Amino acid sequence: MTLAIGVTLGAAPALGFYAWQGDDYAYTTNGGRNAEVCDWEADGNKIKAQYRRDGSDTIKNWWNELGDGSCYPTPEGRGINKMRVVEQRFAAPDVEGKWYYR
User: Fold this and answer.
1) Average pLDDT, the chain
2) How far apart are CA 68 and CA 9, in angstroms?
3) Which of 15, 41, 19 is nearest to 98 (CA)?
């Protein structure tokens, strides 16, 4: 006896990715069209995500000014393909996380 099973697959959803700087991070959501910028260091410093979308060479900045223990979403747009987290420090150089790629 032979049993055949057919499976129809649609387009695979874009996998999300994370970018870190210390305990602060950003991650893509909504199929990679948004990012959440999360401040988890409880140090009083503001953070931002710097990111690039598909079809563009422009690096955009999105700040989380809500404070410690919060996440703040970017606007929806084309897929995010490059991202890092930057911590703004008072009277000291900003701390830039490494670039992460989709």
Assistant:
1) 88
2) 41
3) 19
